[in-house]
Design goal:
alpha/beta, six-stranded parallel β-sheet, four-stranded mixed β-sheet, 17 helices, 14 strands
């Protein structure tokens, strides 16, 4: 992967740590016990030191100074303690990247290479996994699944992440990300059915049809199949008039949005739906006053996952997708796949659901507060 970075842009070069001990020499500046003693004796010369495989490895300040002056150093570290120490001990615009693959992939790769130390490599995987679990609060800027991305693809994601660090653009889905749309829809349907004597079986079928999307076509389909007391036009008019006032943001969302914007982020809501009802919901929930822009599919003439709607959303706040950003939402296809296609980093708001498969988001969040916290930390 470091080779792929260097091939794409020679400014990237592997930072060679000082190594004192036996084994592989490629990729290291081999040293002696005397050199190690001299580095330790010089104030500030050792930024980070660790021992593994009967060797001592040193990230040294003189070496880092030379590497930074020459270009963009790519440092390989296997312990979060080491990452933290370098971040704290050598201030720079570091991008932290977690390269990860399942244990079985490690075993298959080792066997495929004909390694004789597969057991030791798997032990190292186990130790790394334990380190990650013990430091669950540490936020990497980028996570790359090396079993799902080629070195060239991973290198491009890293280059993109570096390029977009100067732009703080955050796009947010609206329904069931910022507001509890499903809860509000369920309550509205229940109230309507109770007031009009509609039975529970029909109520369940209405909810099934409106769970993801509700527009005039939805009501036309329902009226064609179910014995409802009003026409599709009447139902649509009633829904538009009554429903927006029932929506509420998830707990903590207003304060979290204020915190994000105070941190210098431009926040844009990107949502599919009709302009009139979505704007009514945005106003009723108070979200419209907490964001910098709103992009609605009907008004933008493009729907998620079409990259065009993300381009329109970025332009609405004077930004460009060319400089990157984030997309956060609860829909894997519309928000994650759509966001990735637009060149954005993505967070999936899972609400406790397992990832359904396919190209994964950069981060899986339990709720939008977790998602916003991750984005703030990653930048």
């Amino acid at each position: 992967m470091t080779g792929a970075l260097s091939t794409a842009d020679p400014v990237f070069a592997l930072f060679s740590r000082v190594k004192i001990g036996p084994g592989r020499t490629a990729g290291y500046r081999m040293g002696t016990p005397k050199l190690l003693a001299e580095l330790r004796a010089t104030a500030g010369a050792v930024v980070y030191e660790n021992s593994r495989y009967d060797s001592t490895y040193v990230t040294d300040r003189p070496g880092l100074d030379a590497a930074v002056a020459a270009g963009v150093p790519v440092m390989h570290l296997g312990q979060i303690d080491g990452v933290r120490t370098v971040l704290d001990g050598y201030p720079a615009d570091w991008l932290t990247v977690l390269l990860w693959c399942p244990r079985e992939s490690t075993a298959e790769r080792s066997a495929g290479r004909g390694d004789t130390d597969t057991a030791a490599r798997l032990a190292a995987w186990d130790a790394t996994q334990a380190d990650l679990e013990a430091n669950a609060g540490f936020r990497f800027d980028l996570v790359v699944r090396t079993d799902a991305a080629s070195p060239e693809q991973a290198a491009e994601r890293i280059r993109q992440a570096l390029a977009e660090r100067g732009q703080r653009l955050l796009m947010l889905d609206f329904d069931d990300t910022l507001i509890d749309r499903l809860g509000a829809v369920t309550a509205w349907i229940s109230g309507y059915c109770a007031a009009h004597g509609v039975g529970p079986d029909v109520e369940r079928r209405i909810l099934g049809a409106m769970r993801i999307r509700a527009d005039l076509r939805t009501f036309e389909g329902l009226c064609a199949k179910l014995p409802l007391p009003e026409s599709a036009d009447q139902l649509w008019a009633r829904y538009n008039a009554e429903f927006p006032a029932t929506v509420r943001p998830f707990p903590g969302v207003p304060d979290a949005l204020e915190t994000v914007r105070t941190g210098g982020w431009q926040v844009v809501v990107v949502t599919n739906g009709g302009g009139e009802i979505q704007r009514a919901k945005l106003k009723a929930s108070g979200i419209d006053g907490l964001v910098d822009g709103v992009c609605i599919s009907e008004e933008a003439s493009a729907r998620k996952p079409d990259p065009a709607i993300f381009e329109t959303a970025a332009a609405s706040v004077g930004s460009s997708l060319a400089r990157g950003g984030w997309m956060v939402g609860d829909n894997p296809a519309l928000d994650v796949i759509g966001g990735r296609a637009a060149g954005l980093r993505t967070v999936w708001v899972s609400h406790g659901r397992p990832w359904p498969g396919g190209a994964e988001p950069d981060y899986v969040a339990l709720d939008v507060l977790d998602a916003l916290d991750h984005v703030r930390g990653a930048q």
